[in-house]
Input
Amino acid sequence: MMRLAVLVSGGGSNMQSIIDSTKTGILKGLAQVVLVISNNPNAYALKRAKNENIKSVCVERKNFNDEKSFNNVMLEELKNADVGIVCLAGYMRMVGHEIIKTYHGRLLNIHPALLPKFGGKGMYGHRVHEAVVKAKESKSGATVHFVEEEYDTGEVIVQQEVEVLKADTSQDVAKKVLAVEHLVYPKAIKKVIEFPSK
Ligand code: GRF
Output
């Protein structure tokens, strides 16, 4: 059984889709979410984790003198929970070098666009969907990729497209994309479990 950790900063709907999939979906019998880490004490995702009786910790950057000690505490939590795969799900910070090195090839992120388009530093949340609509794209989608030192540059694991209609607002696109996000994340985790990268 693969032990998963999910790093969150906000609502946690992607985390919930992973948890639900481990209970009744394609990850059932394959994986279990054993730890949730948030950098935001007010993240609704923490309430979801509590409701699911999953251990959750809040590690806030402001409580540390430097980035390294902040990341080392998270790395300790991951190691203590014997985590095999780490999933960033709406985690609004870049994880540190030590975590990327330790979990290389087992550190995943979800991005609400068809990378490599509409990715990179500053391209997150609603800004992505506004840019897609402004560019008059006919399609958008969700991407799960491995995490590297640069934002949104890691190898793509799974992508799924949605159609963007001329009349669609950025809210319409966000809604369509979030729906496929909840499908692609469990698929990507299953793929990484079944075909572990070297
Ligand atoms: C998702 O759209 C995800 O792609 C992006 O942040 C949003 C998080 O949503 N990185 P949630 O917290 O999982 O509901």
Remarks:
- The first helix runs from residue 13 to 24.
- DSSP finds six helices and seven strands in the chain.
- The beta strands are 2-8, 31-38, 56-58, 85-88, 107-111, 139-146, 156-163.
